[in-house]
Design brief:
Radius of gyration: 21 Å
Strand content: 25-35%
Shape: globular
CATH topology of the largest domain: Aminopeptidase
CATH class of the largest domain: Alpha Beta
Helix content: 25-40%
Order of helices and strands: HHEEEEHEEHHEHHEEEHHEHEH
Number of strands: 12
Largest sheet: 12 strands, mixed
Length: 326
């Protein structure tokens, strides 16, 4: 069930940060969440109101998550119990962003929707930093030298969450990101003080230039979570230095893999994806999945109207659907 990357077991994935109730609560807010956790199975999702109706559906709050289990048998039993629970609760459906180390390709029969979303980049942290850096292109090594000459890097202090917020929102504004890409103001403060979060800050002569936040559960996996920077960040190649700092930090902690994620889109020429591929040739596929709990309501809402997009009614004007009769 797990992609065979050396040194990782199913239980390592189950204990990854995306299945941590504290993480799910942080990014589910302000909506309520539901979680199911047993020694064999974990699942968490935020409960969202469906615009124009009095109904609700569910979604992986941020990043990756959904169901995870020790083996396929436990996964089948867990999803069955989860379906029954959400049917009783009256939710319509659930959109899931599966964990990238979750081998979803053979599990189509367990979901009502399953598709490859995009390729994502992983970095082998067991390779020495010298070997890793020797594999960089001449341009990447030059960018690192520029950043090392012009910037210094330090850990962001627990009371400096607002610096991360400002730099992240600067980046979002420059990229004309939709409002859904912005987080609640308080989430940055909560993020930087979390024990599973590490944020590095790059500073120049005029102060903060860029920041990058990484997640780790200490189970062999770490993740490039979010980053941001001002206008100076591009000129000073700050993001190169922040990633290199993180590689050294988590390698020293014994991490086996860092997941850098994919691009802002699924396109192979997406600029963010191309930037990440400069640091590693290794890929894992990211899948999205879906579960339908109330098929009649899902159909009346127009669940399939979004083409291949699950919860199609969220991409078109939903029909008014009241609470169904028992």
């Amino acid at each position: 069930m797990i992609i065979p990357v050396h040194g990782l077991e199913a239980t390592d994935i189950m204990n990854d940060i995306y299945f941590n109730p504290e993480f799910i609560q942080l990014y589910g807010a302000p909506d309520p969440i539901d979680t199911l956790e047993t020694p064999q199975y974990k699942h968490g999702a935020a409960i969202r109101s469906i615009p124009g109706t009095d109904r609700t559906d569910m979604e992986t709050p941020h990043g990756y998550g959904g169901p995870i289990a020790r083996n396929i048998s436990d996964l089948k039993d867990g999803i069955h119990a989860w379906r029954e629970r959400q049917e009783r609760a009256g939710h319509v459906a659930e959109f899931i962003r599966l964990h990238p180390f979750f081998d979803a390709g053979a599990l189509d029969g367990l979901f009502d929707h399953l598709m490859v979303n995009r390729e994502t980049v992983i970095v082998d942290m067991s390779v020495s930093r010298e070997q890793h850096r020797a594999a960089y292109s001449k341009g990447t090594r030059h960018a690192l030298r520029v950043a090392e000459q012009r910037l210094t890097v330090r850990d962001l202090a627990p009371n400096e969450g607002d610096i991360l917020r400002r730099l992240h929102e600067d980046m979002l504004a420059r990229n004309k990101a939709p409002k859904e890409a912005y987080f609640q103001v308080d989430s940055y403060r909560r993020l930087v003080v979390a024990p599973w979060s590490t944020t590095f800050l790059a500073e120049g002569d005029n102060g903060p230039v860029a920041a990058a936040c990484f997640l780790s559960s200490g189970m062999g996996l770490c993740h490039y979570h979010l980053a941001g920077g001002n206008e100076e960040a591009r000129q000073t190649k700050a993001n190169y230095l922040l990633l290199e700092t993180a590689f050294e930090h988590f390698s020293a902690q014994g991490a086996l893999w860092m997941h850098l994620g994919g691009g802002r889109t699924a396109a192979v020429d997406d600029p963010l994806f191309r930037f990440k591929t400069k640091f590693s040739p290794l890929r894992v596929r990211f899948y999205t999945a879906g579960l339908i709990f109330d098929r009649d309501t899902y159909g009346r809402l127009g669940g399939g109207d979004g083409g291949s997009r699950f919860l199609g009614y969220r991409h078109s004007a939903p029909s008014g659907v009241g609470t169904p009769s028992p």
